[in-house]
Amino acid sequence: MSFSGKPYNGILFNIHKLIALGVVIITALRVYEALKGAPAQALVIGLVGVTGLAVNALFASSALLSIGNVNYEVVRLIHNIALVAAVLAMGGVIYLLSGRMP
Questions:
Q1: For 81-93, what is each residue's pLDDT tens digit?
Q2: Residue 69 to residues 7, 22, 51, 63, 73: CA-CA distances in angstroms?
Q3: Which candidate in 17, 22, 57, 68 could, as Cys together with 82 as Cys, close a disulfide (CB 3.0–4.6 Å)?
């Protein structure tokens, strides 16, 4: 999105948000199904919580970026950090649920 320039193209921005929402829904359903059959592990539950917080931060920072009258650099930094946190936490969940770690 940052390559399309500011202000953001409304159509591209909405497509970006819809794709992100779809990925969140599909991932949440898959993780829920995997958690139903797995023994409860505190680390997995904690990582799912971190992922949820990071996704909320992604949607909130995205909304702030769409408004356009905020400190762009700070909000974009928050957006990027939340993205990395979500990917790492979900990667940890997938790794732990794959059965490779006791």
A1: 999 999 999 999 8
A2: 10, 27, 27, 11, 12
A3: 57
